[in-house]
Amino acid sequence: MENVNAKYVSQKVSRTRWKPVSVSTLQQPDVFAAGSWDNEDNKISIWSIGSNGGSDMDDGFEGDPQLLCEHKHDGDVLDLQFLDQDRIVTASSTGAVSIYRHHQNSQTISLAQHWARAHRYPCDNAPCTGVVCSSPEIVTVGEDGRIIVFRADQEAVIRVIENADSSTIHAVTYLRTTEILTVNSIGQLKLWDFRQQSNSPSQILSLSGDRVPLHCVDRHPNQQHIVATGGQDGMLCVWDVRQSSAPFSLMEAHSAEMWEVHFHPTNPDHLFTCSEDGSLLHWETSSQSDMPSFLQGGRNTSMMSRSAMAPAGGNQSLVNAWLSGDSSKGRLETTHMLPSQTLSVNSLDVLGQFEGTSPVVGAGEVSREAAAEDSGRMQR
Amino acid sequence: MYGRTSASCSFYKNAQVATQYGNQVSILLAIELIWNLCEVLFIDAAPAGSLLLHLLDWVRLHKADVDEKAREVLQSESPAEHHDYWDVVVSYVLQGRLDEARHMLVKQATLQPAARKMYKLMDSLLSKMPFYNPGGTQTLTEFDVKWRHWHEEVDRCLQDSSFASNRHLEIICKILVGDEDTLLEHKELLSTWYHFLVTRLLFSQPTVKPTELHYYAQSCMTMFLDSRSVPEPLDNILLAAFEFDIHQVIKDCSIALNNWWFVAHLTDLLDHCKLLQSHNLHFGSNLREFLLLEYASGLFTHHSLWQLAVDYFDHCPEFGRVYLELQIERVPVDTERKALKVLRICEQRQMSEQVRSICKIMAMRGLRNNRLGSALSWSIRAKDAAFATLISERFLQDYCAKGTFSDLDLIDNLGPAMLLSDRLTFLGKYREFHKLYEEKRFREAAKLLLSLMTAKIAPRSFWMTLLTDALPLLEQKEVIFSADQTYELMFCLEELTSSLNSAPPSADRPMQEEDIELTKVELLRLALARNLAMAIVKEGTVET
What we know:
Largest interface: A-B, 45 and 31 residues
GO molecular function (chain B): structural constituent of nuclear pore
Low-confidence stretches of chain A: 53-61, 288-319, 354-380
Largest sheet of chain B: none
Organism (chain B): Pleuronectes platessa (European plaice)
Oligomer: heterodimer
Low-confidence stretches of chain B: 1-5
Helix content of chain A: under 10%
Strand content of chain B: under 5%
Largest sheet of chain A: 4 strands, antiparallel
InterPro entries (chain B): Nucleoporin_Nup85
GO biological process, one term (chain B): positive regulation of DNA-templated transcription
Subunit structure (chain B): Component of the nuclear pore complex (NPC).
Distance between the termini of chain B: 110 Å
């Protein structure tokens, strides 16, 4: 709970995303975008937590987010992604997909590209629920069960998979450059290979029996077959898409819908989840599964083991760390990052370059947005 | 030309926004004023002695423009000659901030060495004024005696005209002695009747009891306001507070303020202090709950604040739940995510009726948009058997029309949810038959097909389709249906045809269709007979 900054923004925030930082610059992330939902006029906005953002000295203390600019957005912002340094893709409840450009010199936002009614029913709009991009390609999914592929700077739609799902697709992520993964409201993960022309998934994985709707999905940054999902029951599921059609491990996490799950991009022993129950969890697994048990569990020893592990990014033992998911043996620790609150934490994003991590939290329902910096915990 | 129009438009708009914000600010200030007074009078319930100290704090808090003026004066080149100098000194005295007043007076004294003695006298009068110390050992009577001594001393100074040569000091002296006419001459500085009230009490009745307050309040208001001007709503609210008439305060606030926020929260606070028990409403449960419900209902109609209202309803023990139940179904739901949030609120409170109705709305939406899979998922979540049946029918109709199933990802993974309705069970099982058939597990497929009819899972209207599905199985080289199973199939066919024959031949049915139907029956009979023969032969051979 160290270093939590909160700011009331008088709107309900549905998504927040850090602006990507180029690898070459030795710079901490300090700019993020936020999208609102369920307001009379919805907006996307750009915020800065850097000291250069706002010149006002009296207004707030250091690290307090400052509004850089905002732009009206038609419909709820259901998802938001940075396409590159200054372009943002949004998914709207009106079914539209838009690209906004953030002009850094003038600190303004303008609409760069707009696909109206990309997702739709025969005679109505269908909300676009998720977007993922790997510039210049953009993939969106929606309540209409369609998957649409766009290219930035190209007006025509590249590819549409009609009836990709009989229920709502809630989220999408890249597995590899040509493969995506979608989760739907009947507890299934579907793998789609864009190299194939067929309009059916290359693989379907599902939760056995319960058909618990899944709301979010994220892929392990180094090991692309490891995938984490979260759903309506607040359970964290880790899957190995190569091996099994059922989740490898299930972990009790939240008491209500899990809205987002993210691996730490450079330190994948860490994972973050947020939920409708108002909590933001930090998951930490000690990667040394082959370590003698007497060295595990203690706070200090786990710190030590991690520092020993850190340079060997994609080590085999990392696999076991998440796939075993054995919280009973003390290999997995969870920490609440926010003081208890009753309203939903809708979104989180984590961006880590070096030794620090900075999850952004959009606690939409309290009209609050908190940038929780957890650098103390993650150092070295 | 256009440019100017839009510029003046935006100016007009800005001015409008400014007025709007100005109004809001003044309402908030009034609310804070009332809130703080209620805190002093009702919640702190300070006894005589400390009561006045609290009231002084209250006035100082809401009449802070003195400090701004003082800063202006002190920052000028020669503060003592500033035109606001005496206003500041007098204002300090009026608020009982005597130390600050003395600091200011020192500046004047240094400029007038001739009048030094007079300034010194005033300084000593100001410094000697006793203030009640509630934490101290001094009793109220002791304080009262001490204060009277001081008061007499000030009065003496006034009588022997110690300050006659300095108009300003004489005014201060008159204020200190509590001279009402002098106080009323400074209406500009007092600006409100309640400031006048507190100042008057400070210099004439510092040990005022809560019960006496209303008398002074009433008289101060009458004295302060011109006979011409009518008291404003705020004046009446404050007066009611000074009279300790809680209900009048709440009532007047409800009428005067533009929202329920203030009264709801004030009443809640007072209720928690057990100050509202004596009062019963002739409707609803009690005043607190009534006002909270009003406020929460207002919140609920707001397009984005509706979620906050839920907490308020949760804290209304008697009618909160009923209100929530009535309102939650009316939240406009335009995305599934919002629907899920609404559902979560209902599920946490075991409001199964509302869960059903919201799921039904979503299912209807799916059906309307021809998203059968989605619609079915929602009706399964709602455990709505009737609706699941309806959607299953649609699936079966689609199958009959197209010959293929849609939404296989859903139907293949129904699991135990299949048992929700008979028709859904049939749909799931029938799809299972197709899967078995595709996998060439004919025996299992045949058994399943037969059981769908004999266990009466399949609707009668669908039997012909099932029997037709049996045809290719009957025509296989090896025997799939046993003799017993074939008898059962024959029985099913006869039952079906007899019921068809007994029905009166409808005139509007074209002959051709009837012909096809008849041929189908003939074909089936033939296939069944041949299969029966083969089965008997085969079973006979195995036995020997």
